[in-house]
């Protein structure tokens, strides 16, 4: 999805701002989802960009899609502005992906076709598969290594700090609602010519410590869980490393 980048003033607010100190109280306080905006100089716009401080769905949908969602259309009511609703899966699944890996594949194709210079995605810590490490992937291999969900709050937008001077002018951002809302809100101030968004649904999320509490209280062997999802049958589906 394209959204033009107007010329910027010589000294925009983010050029005078600094990321907040890690561990400090962020503006949304207890509601903060650690989306990463406040870990970048674009914290300068937090008051009007944070999903938990201000919600401007109608204006933001109109800016991104040319119109707001049709509330009389049930699919748009729940999923937002759309042209066509599809269900799809990869015929050759990517091993180790959350499902078949269609999200990663779209990221790979966006790079391979030259649509974008980089893909914002979430790798994992080398010490813990559930600890997210946001990155600007420049190669298909880097996108693929970010496959599978890290079901914890991920500061995706902290990588905005890496954009200036990176040579990245066209970006595909993969992310969940709170991250994407803040990203879209600051989009006109980013040093980008084009921004594409691949949004993921997210009903709830927790810190890494909260995830451990959740796993310890819901499954008999938390250490073997490699994947889980809140599903449309109102159950939580777990997958374990031993194939269960
Ligand atoms: C935090 C989170 C919660 C979700 N909750 C639900 C849910 O309750 N019900 C449901 O139906 N779907 C949920 N989803 C979406 C669902 O998991 C995706 O549709 C699925 O990942 C796509 O499968 P895939 O095999 O194509 O993904 P893959 O090809 O495996 O790619 C997964 C992508 O997720 C990205 N990612 C990983 N962790 C995070 C993170 N913490 N924040 C942002 N991006 C991340 C990676 O960059 C990667 O590109 C959630 C996704 C996330 C990230
Ligand atoms: S913009 Fe993101 S990091 Fe900042 S307060 Fe809001 S949710 Fe937290």
Walk me through this protein's architecture.
By secondary structure, the protein is of the alpha/beta class. It folds into two domains: 13-22 and 29-70 and 96-202, no CATH class; 206-244, no CATH class. It has seven helices and six strands; from the N terminus they run H-H-H-H-E-E-H-E-H-E-H-E-E. The chain has helices at 46-49, 57-65, 74-79, 102-112, 140-144, 177-186, 208-218, and strands at 118-124, 132-137, 170-176, 194-200, 225-230, 236-240. The strands form two sheets. The protein has a four-stranded mixed beta sheet. It has a two-stranded antiparallel sheet with strand order 5-6. Strand 5 (225-230) and strand 6 form a beta hairpin. The chain is globular and about 55 Å long. The mean pLDDT is 93. Bound molecules: flavin-adenine dinucleotide (FAD) and iron/sulfur cluster (SF4). Residues 97-104, 107, 121-122, 132, 146-152, 154, 156, 174-176, 200-203, 205, 229-230 line the site of flavin-adenine dinucleotide (FAD).
Pick out its properties.
244 residues; alpha/beta; 2 domains; 7 helices; 6 strands; binds flavin-adenine dinucleotide
Counting DSSP H or I runs of 4 or more residues, the number of helices is: 7
Count of individual domains: 2
Ions, cofactors and other bound molecules: flavin-adenine dinucleotide, iron/sulfur cluster
> Main sheet?
4 strands, mixed
Give a brief outline of the structure.
The chain is 23% helix and 16% strand.
Topology:
Elements lengths: L45 H4 L7 H9 L8 H6 L22 H11 L5 E7 L7 E6 L2 H5 L25 E7 H10 L7 E7 L7 H11 L6 E6 L5 E5 L4
Parallel strand pairs: 1-3, 3-4
Antiparallel strand pairs: 1-2, 5-6
The chain binds flavin-adenine dinucleotide and iron/sulfur cluster.
């Amino acid at each position: 999805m394209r959204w033009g980048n107007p010329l910027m003033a010589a000294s925009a607010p983010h050029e005078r701002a600094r990321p907040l100190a890690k561990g400090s109280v962020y503006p949304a306080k207890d509601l903060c989802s650690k989306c990463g905006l406040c870990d970048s100089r674009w914290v300068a716009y937090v008051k009007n960009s944070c999903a938990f401080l201000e919600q401007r769905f109608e204006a933001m949908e109109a800016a991104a899609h040319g119109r707001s969602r049709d509330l009389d259309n049930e699919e748009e009511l729940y999923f937002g502005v759309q042209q066509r609703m599809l269900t799809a899966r990869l015929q050759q699944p990517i091993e180790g992906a959350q499902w078949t890996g269609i999200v990663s594949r779209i990221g790979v194709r966006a790079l391979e076709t030259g649509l974008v210079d980089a893909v914002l995605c979430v790798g994992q810590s080398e010490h813990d598969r559930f600890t997210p490490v946001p990155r600007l992937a420049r190669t298909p291999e880097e996108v693929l290594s970010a496959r599978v969900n890290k079901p914890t709050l991920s500061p995706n937008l902290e990588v905005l700090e890496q954009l200036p001077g990176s040579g990245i002018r066209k970006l595909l951002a993969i992310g969940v609602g709170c991250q994407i809302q803040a990203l879209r809100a600051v989009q006109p101030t980013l040093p980008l010519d084009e921004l594409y968004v691949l949004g993921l649904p997210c009903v709830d999320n927790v810190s890494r410590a909260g995830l451990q509490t959740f796993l310890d209280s819901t499954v008999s062997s938390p250490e073997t869980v490699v994947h889980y999802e809140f599903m449309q049958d109102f159950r939580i589906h777990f997958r374990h490393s031993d194939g269960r």
